Amino acid sequence: MKIKFYAFFFSIFFAVLLWLLVAMANEFQITMSIPLVIDNMKESETIAYPKPEISATIQGTGWQLLLLYFTPTLKYHLSMNDINGTIITNEKLSQRMYHSGEIKILSVFPNSITLSTERKIQKTVPIIPTANLEFYEGYGGIGKITALPESVTISGAKSLVEKIQSWKTQPLTLSNIKSNVEQEVKFIDSLDNEIVLNKYSAILSLEVQPLAEKTLYDIPVTVAEVPENRKVVLLPKKIDVVIRGGVKEISSIEAKQFSASIDYKTILLDTSGFVQPTITSPENIRIINQNPAQLQYVIRKE
Q: pLDDT tens digit string along 146-198?
């Protein structure tokens, strides 16, 4: 029974292969995008953005077109002498599109394009890491995710480069993280290759630690910008805070590293009788609770 099945399967496979060989010998027409290349262009110049897109209708055997698809050597060439306004794309095809005589270029679309040149410039911009990170329960990132190198040099048309202030990485997506992150990530596409980068990836890094909480007591609250003839009495004068952060940072944190203050103007604008202090904390430490949340105050003349 198995022998009959294998024989049947082989017969079907051989028939399909034979049909494919015969069919691919026939001629077909396809339309494909063709890169535009400007020959003899000065290093200090480039085509003004956006560069026109060119498509060509090509005729050839199935095998020839398949080879052309996987090894795209066909390009549309123009010289600097051609760039003088409107160009009729279907003219001088034999000169502008180098190809073997085995395929035929039937037409080019659009029928005309307008080209102009522009000064090429370069500048260095910061790299912006992009990440979607989900941490394992009880873990968290310490600080911000960083990129190495921190910047990238871009070059291209002046009108395009001047608008770019930074360059983003592709999103780094990770889940159940409980150890330090260090991964190479590519940059986003360079505007259809209109912008050239001096590098195309960066190492994104983030320190990850188990999270812990800690309560700090009796942080004094001050009032800023109080006039000389006024005195503000706060009730109470001190607050407690609950903080969260990595276990390494939390273990050495002390209350004296925090400050709490209220601006005198805030008190003058208040109508409720209660104000909330602004708390300054060390980097990478998050305040998750404050007691009391608001303070009463009394203004006295001096």
A: 999 999 999 988 988 999 999 999 999 999 999 999 999 999 987 666 788 99
Instruction: Report which of residues 205 and 93 the model is more confident about.
Output: 205
Torsions phi, psi for 16 (to 5 deg): -65, -40
Average pLDDT over all residues of the chain: 86
Whole-model pTM over 0.90: no
Is a pLDDT exceeding 60 seen at residue 249?
yes
SS3 of the chain: CHHHHHHHHHHHHHHHHHHHHHHHCCEEEEEEEECEEEECCCCCEEECCCCCCEEEEEEEEHHHHHHHHHCCCCCEEEEHHHCCEEEECCCCHHHHCCCCCCCEEEEEECCEEEECEEEEEEEEEEEECCEEEEECCCEEEEEEEEEECCEEEEEEEHHHHCCCCCEEECCEEEEEECCCEEEEEEECCCCCCCCEECCCEEEEEEEEEEEEEEEEEEEEEEEECCCCCEEEEEECCEEEEEEEEEHHHHHHCCHHHCEEEEEHHHHHHCCCCEECCEEECCCCCEEEEEECCCEEEEEEEC
pLDDT score, position 99: 67
Structure tokens at 239: 């607050």
Flag whether pLDDT at 274 surpasses 90.
Answer: yes
**Domains defined for the chain, CATH in brackets:** 2-115 (2.170.120), 119-210 (2.170.120.40), 212-301 (2.170.120.30)
Q: What is the DSSP pairing of strand 76-79 with strand 36-39?
A: parallel
